[in-house]
Amino acid sequence: MTQTNKVHPTKSNGKLFALLSAFFYALFTLIPDSHSLMVAWSWVFIWQAGLFFPVLWLLAQVWQTKYLKPLGNSIDWLIGLAAIGVIVSTIFAEFPNQARWYAWVTLCFIAALYALNYWLDNAQRRYQLLKWQGYLSIAFIVISLSLWTSQTFLPELARLDLLKQSGVNNVVYDFSVLELRNWAPLGHQNYVAGYLLLALPLLVGLGLLEKNWKRWLWLGGFGLGLLNLYTTSSRGGWLGLLILAFMALGFFLVRSPFSTVSKGLASLGVMAIAVLAVFSNNRLRSLLLEVFSGNIGGQSAYRVVTSTVGYRMGADNFLSGVGLGGVPLLYQKYLPVWGGREAELNYQLHSTPLQLWAEMGIWSILIGASAFILFIFLAWRWLFSPHIERKDSILIASCLAAFLAYGVMSFTDYQLDNIAISGTLIIYLASLASLLSNENEPILLQRYTNFLALTSLGIVFAMTIWLIPIHRAWQLSSKGFAAYNQEKPNLNAFIESLSQAHLLVLWESYYPYQLGWKLGDLALQSSDLQQQALLLTEGITWLEKGIMASPYSEFGRSNLGWLLLSRNPQAAAESFASSINLVPNKRGVFYGLGLSLLGQGNKNLAIEAFSLEILRNPLFITSPIWNLANLQSVYLDVIDNVINNYRTLLEQNPEASTFNTYLHQSRGGVYWWAGNKKAARKDLEMYGDSSSQLLLKLSETKNIESELSQLPSSPQILVFLAWLKPEQRSSLLRQAWLASTKTSLPPKTEAELMTGMENSKSFEQWLKQNAPVWQYRFQRAGFGVNHRHVDGFQPTDFFPVIDNLAITTWFSNLFPTPIYSPELDLALQPKRDDLLSKN
């Protein structure tokens, strides 16, 4: 379908701005780890500056042509509705500054859409644009496969080969491990899959249109793209591809002139390839098994939790949503108590409809429904219009197929904050509007050109003024982190830089949180009491400032509680209670609350708090931390309280079920640890696993060596044999460690394990009293990503974890600690509420 404008431009129409826009789009499509670089200095400044070019390109075209060129086919109404929704959600956002940041990005992409629409004024330009997009997609695929192969795949194969040489044979390349999936170059496997779903239909379309070697170039790129998609192991990506394949198959069966036999063979081929691809990937295979078994866990539970949070946000803010960018700041406020430790924090909801529902409320439904109806209409026009040329028809089909595939995947992930993906969507939408254009009459603006241009430039100028302190703060913080990370850390420069950054952007919690954490961390490490007191005071002050900027953050409240514990137990208890109200299942927080209550002399409530920590995390009962003098006085009372709670929970859940089995297993483990073997046997003989039952027998001095010889090898059996065969102890311990951790046993740890066994009269004594102690702190993985800053430190919690190394490494199944167990968390919630009400 050709198009002729009523008014023809006569000037360059901002060609320089167009080239700069294309350059920045290509840069952030191909550069490795681009999505993370977007929130690192100075890359954040680069892409933010790049956003101004499409705006200036559009203004240049409007200024020179004196008219506004609509997209046509009612697409302008959809874009207008989206713009109004963004503005409304920003006005009423609880965190308006974050909303303003994302709203500006959205409006810049809308400007890019209309700027492209001006440029696409003939068939040659449309084809030129989509060919350029195709070349970019092939470059993306080649870079992706090259980086993943060299940095992930080959090193992992080398590691697996070393494990096999060490005697661990049951190891394969495991796509269920996030770090082993293809992340390149966008930084995450789902982003890569999302981009590929947009790229693959276009490569097929270009392959159909080109001839000779170019056809093989495009179709070869399509084949590599399928391989690339497989390496992402993205379930949403494969779902989108399968839907697209079956839609294409349906179109082929209805419209193709081939025989029935040929169509049948084609159908069988597509289904066979789909089944083979799914079942050859262990992650996709596990998803099917999870679905068919009805057991919700892992990623499925993760999505259930994030979906619930998204629904609650939108329902609670129906007319406007929480505002763009508000999800990570409000996430823990809406976290369900039954979510356990699954998805404790997030910066997005892993579903585009849910993300938009949370951020924009009713506007997201209006926009989504309108977009769905519009694309059905556009597809209908394409299918039944007799005037569309073959070349244009194939390009339209490619764009519509890309929207279909990506639309399916959008239900499983949110990716509109990714420049490569949003940029591709803009290019396809502009191309589709141009391909289906009915030569829309341009809106003449001669009388208003100056006013509109100056007003728009005024908005651009105002946004520039608003953005300057944000970027200055980012620069200062990056400078401060660099000063501290020198060979000789410059603490004063770090404090000064981040303090200035905070003063420039008071609504940003990242800077005070980083200051508060680092100063608190230094205080806990300092042996100088005067310096420790000073650092502790400063750390507390900055964490409190972070909480003011981000009041729904468990990170600030729980770590503030640990810093307050030694100087103000009552304030610490209040901080821990606030943390529990946000994330009741966080490990160590009820323990911290118990310490603060004990510090106030409230022994009974402290016992209740300690008991709740163990009920949610039974493994905590084995921690050597209970040997501390201040805890010895309550230890036996805590065990009795835990046992009584298990008895009550079993009375409330007497029928056979997974939860009933879990309660028996946990109670049996606590009984065994407390030395009540008779009671432990009643629970573990029926409900415990084989290693738990063997451990119980060995604790009762029963000979289990003959029984061990009849069982398949496992890490636990290797440890039992290490105890029973002192002459082979070293070798067996190394094998057990390797089988459990997939790493070599450190010499120091090996010596501690050997010494502990040699100095023990029984296996039970070694396991309970003489096993090595492992001290560490939980790391806040994803702290920077969730705060949309990656320049600084990755904090660790101040909660001092002290573990029994042998128990946590080999026998943690005796004290099962589920990440996701709605029955357990709902059963414990009344007890938590009761304790907090008394605090």
Mean pLDDT: 91
Shape annotation: globular
First-residue to last-residue Cα separation: 73 Å
* Rg calculated over all Cα atoms: 31 Å
How would you characterize the largest beta sheet? 2 strands, antiparallel
Total number of helices: 37
Q: Looking across the biggest beta sheet, what order are the strands in?
A: 1-2
Task: Characterise this structure.
With 839 residues, the protein is mainly alpha-helical. It has 37 helices and four strands. It starts with 14 loop residues before the first helix and ends with a helix.
What's the quick description here?
The protein is an all-alpha fold.
Task: Kindly list the characteristics that best describe this protein.
two-stranded antiparallel sheet; 839 residues; mainly alpha; 4 strands; single chain; disordered N terminus
What is this structure's SSE topology?
Blueprint: H1 15-30, H2 34-37, H3 43-65, E1 67-68, H4 75-91, H5 96-119, H6 123-165, H7 189-209, H8 212-232, H9 235-255, H10 260-279, H11 282-293, H12 298-316, H13 327-330, H14 352-360, H15 362-384, H16 390-409, H17 419-435, E2 443-444, H18 449-484, H19 491-504, H20 510-525, H21 529-549, H22 554-564, H23 569-582, H24 589-599, H25 603-616, H26 629-652, H27 658-674, H28 677-687, H29 690-699, H30 705-709, H31 715-724, H32 729-741, H33 747-758, H34 763-770, E3 773-776, H35 783-786, E4 801-804, H36 805-810, H37 822-838
Antiparallel strand pairs: 1-2, 3-4
Helix pairs in contact: 1-3, 1-17, 3-5, 3-18, 4-5, 4-15, 5-17, 6-7, 6-8, 6-17, 7-8, 7-9, 7-16, 7-17, 9-10, 9-16, 12-14, 14-15, 16-17, 18-19, 19-20, 20-21, 21-22, 22-23, 23-24, 24-25, 25-26, 25-37, 26-27, 27-28, 28-29, 31-32
